Amino acid sequence: MEFQAIQKKKKIYQTIIDQIKHSIAEGTIQPGDKLPSERALATMFKVSRTSVKEAMTVLESSGIITVRPGVGMYVNTEANYGTLLEFSNMIGDNLYDFMNLIELRQTIEGDAAFYAAKRITKPQKERLESDYENLVVLSLEGKIAMKEDYQFHYTIVEAANNPVMLEIIKLVADKILIHLRESRAYSITDDSLNAQVIEEHKQIFRAIIEGRPDAAKEAMWKHHQGIKLRHQQFRINSGGIRNDS
């Protein structure tokens, strides 16, 4: 397999993700293939190992690869690779595309929260409690908690027990994780914003656990409105808004 050296025009780890996804979608990398080591990938892309590690974290969390400690990184055989390239091209790195993605999540996850409050099983409830606790602990410690945030939301969609909803979320998982990383990296720098994010997740969690479907849907919808506002502010503060025309 061959990769191109990264041109530093956008986030390095995101470009790595895009190249690997394109290679999978085009068949250059096959499901089940072992990827080169982080060190080897860093040499191929001509970037730091930190950037490669960030990319692998997103790919693993989104279910595209599996990392086997001491063994290596493998492309999963169960993912829907036929649509990977299409979704990569559809959702870009600008604010407009981000807002479209949030609106998609707002629609799907709002209904997912509603149905989760009705349909959640005991094992799913236990997983959601664990996910929520992990997210809160790391957030209070001032850590980005990207994977934990994504897992909390994923478990809610899973608890809706609607496989179509779950498959759609899986298809955009890597984009969700990329934007989560940005948004949470911004929110944890401000105590009030961090507290707001924690409170939003608390309202969602309680409504689902207590079996209140309408409240769960409303809490999820408000959470995504908050994500929109925080990400807009992040873009403005970071200067990224100039590329979002």
Describe the protein in words.
Strand 2 (65-68) and strand 3 form a beta hairpin. Helix 1 (12-25) crosses helix 3 (49-61), helix 6 (122-140) packs antiparallel against helix 10 and helix 10 runs antiparallel to helix 11. By secondary structure, the protein is mainly alpha-helical. The chain has helices at 12-25, 38-45, 49-61, 84-90, 95-119, 122-140, 146-159, 163-171, 173-187, 191-209, 213-238; strands at 34-35, 65-68, 72-75. The protein is built from eleven helices and three strands. It has a three-stranded antiparallel beta sheet.
List the helices and strands and how they pair.
Layout: H1 12-25, E1 34-35, H2 38-45, H3 49-61, E2 65-68, E3 72-75, H4 84-90, H5 95-119, H6 122-140, H7 146-159, H8 163-171, H9 173-187, H10 191-209, H11 213-238
Antiparallel strand pairs: 1-3, 2-3
Summed up, the helix count is 11
**Percentage beta strand:** under 5%
Uncertain stretches of 5 or more adjacent residues:
241-245
Count every beta strand, where a strand is a DSSP E run of 2 or more residues: 3
The secondary-structure element order is: HEHHEEHHHHHHHH
Largest sheet: spatial strand order: 1-3-2
Structural class: mainly alpha
Overall, the morphology is: globular
- Helical residues, percent: 55-70%
Largest sheet: 3 strands, antiparallel
User: Oligomerization state of this entry?
Assistant: single chain
Q: How far apart, in Å, are the first and last alpha carbons?
A: 35 Å
Q: Roughly how many Å is the radius of gyration?
A: 18 Å
Overall mean pLDDT? 86
